[in-house]
Amino acid sequence: MLLRRVIGLAFIWVSAALGQKATLDSAVSAVVGTVTDHSRAPLKDAEVRLVVSGSMVNAVRTGDDGRFLVAGDVRGPSKLQVRRVGFSAREIELVFPRDTMGVLIIVLDPAAPQLAGRDAGDDEEHASGWLGEFYQRRRSHSIGIYFTRQEILSKQARHLSDVLRGVPGVTLSASERGGFAIRMRNCRYAPVLWMNGSRVAHTELDEVARLDDIAAMEVYLTNAGVPPDFLDRSNLGCGTILVWTRQ
Q1: SS3 of residue 101 by DSSP
Q2: Which residue among 41, 43, 72, 193 has its CA within the 20 to 30 Å range from the CA of 233?
Q3: Is 116 inside a domain boundary?
Q4: pLDDT tens per residue across span 212-245
Q5: Cis ω for the linkage preceding 97 (within 30 of 0)
Q6: Coil, helix or strand at residue 8
Q7: Does residue 91 share a domain with residue 142?
Q8: pTM for the full model?
Q9: In terms of domains, do 99 and 194 share one?
Q10: How many C-beta atoms surround the C-beta of residue 114 within 10 A?
């Protein structure tokens, strides 16, 4: 009798575990699409980010044909952020399961022309939006460490993390996934990473950021000085990095 009861309880536990796994797996969805310009010409190398509940869960780049496939756990408000140099960024709110049942066509508008001889991230006088806020913080804060695009390129770095070499309190170590792992103030965990205002969880800077795309970067070794919108309560004092990419 006791044996039957134990077997019955085990069967219930296994069934519940399998049911939970099926529920978790069903939350992972894939979105397929094509990024084009207004003439419907495919745009190669556009960055497509899947953002769920304010955090980036995956990022891919379009192929030669402009197509992409991005997947992730979408249990929360979800959207795509699409960017490519020379074009204005777009955000597309996703509705499931509708947006997993076909191919999305995402058309990007040409970016406003830059002033002659100037590049995005270099023009402090005419900066606006997030870039204007970056320069404002750079002028008023002594706690953060701020890099403009021109300063980043002048270092002739191979990886974006190389820009932080020599910064007191920052150490770099080779990462198995490519590039380098960044640690601040001897913390065992990676610094909190934000890209264009979206939290990027469980990843290293070199995995999601390319030098050619960067307009500006700000680094905070502690929570002191971090803009309120980017304070993360889960941060164990391991630093914060804000990355801003070119339009």
Answers
A1: coil
A2: 72
A3: no
A4: 889 999 999 998 889 999 998 888 889 999 999 8
A5: yes
A6: helix
A7: no
A8: 0.66
A9: no
A10: 15
Q: DSSP E strands: which ranges in the chain?
A: 28-36, 47-52, 55-61, 67-73, 78-83, 90-93, 103-107, 145-148, 170-174, 180-184, 192-195, 198-200, 214-220, 240-245
CA distance 121 to 147: 10
Main-chain phi, psi angles of 169, to 5 degrees: 90, 0
Q: How many CB atoms lie within 10 A of CB 189?
A: 13
Q: Which two tokens stand for residue 3?
A: 């044996």
CA distances to 1, 35, 68, 92, 119 from 86, rounded to whole Å, are: 73, 13, 19, 19, 11
We report the CATH number of the domain holding residue 60 as 2.60.40.10
d(CA 72, CA 61): 15
Torsions phi, psi of 61, nearest 5?
Answer: -125, 145
* Residue range of the domain that includes 172: 129-245
- Which residue in 24, 103, 31 sits closest to 71, CA to CA? 31
Count of the separate structural domains present in the chain? 2
Domain presence at residue 188: yes
Does residue 22 lie in a domain region?
Answer: no
Q: What is the CA radius of gyration of the chain?
A: 22
Question: Rounded CA gap, 55 and 26, in Å?
Answer: 20
CA nearest neighbour of 190 among 224, 234, 142, 156: 234
Region 88-115 average pLDDT:
86
Instruction: State the CB neighbour count (10 A cutoff) for residue 37.
Output: 16
Whether residue 240 is found in the same domain as residue 162: yes
